[in-house]
Amino acid sequence: MNSLEKFIRNNRSLFNEDPPAGHFERFEQKMTRKPAKIVTLRRIISVAASIAILMLAGIVWLKPEKHDEVLVCENTSDMKICYLEKMDIVASQIEELVMDFDYWDRTEIMNEVQSIFEAVNSDFESELPEELPEDEMNEILSEYYRLNLQGLEMIFNIVYYIL
Length: 163
What we know:
79% of the residues lie in helices and 0% in strands. The model has no long low-confidence stretch (mean pLDDT 81). It is mainly alpha-helical. It is elongated, with a radius of gyration of 31 Å. The protein has helices at residues 3-10, 12-16, 23-32, 36-62, 67-74, 79-97, 103-121, 124-127, 134-162. The chain folds into two domains: 3-59, no CATH class; 65-162. It contains nine helices and no strands.
């Protein structure tokens, strides 16, 4: 028999007694009252979340659409070179922004940028089936390059708004 069972058996009469006067009222007050720390923490979190939502909405609203620039690459003779040039511009902007970051953060960000370039410079074109019509192949390649460019732009936006 454990100690809790012993305590209950030894003090059974105490459990049958009515609680002192005003006990239920005090208990109700304690149940409805929230600790000040929790209320303060909830307010801080809600304010921080509101600020984050407003900043995100501002970023999305103020970010200029670049669809016209991308269409220029689709109409060039060498789409890959056109996208790589645009990616180089964004990568150099990222590199300028991270100059003041500490060594590890700067290295991590630039490694991500480098991995995107390695993906674009891989031989992705040769992995496409030769049976694809040229317009479908160009559409797939355009989407592939555009998504990589958008990845770099996303890194740029994150780094820009961190500063």
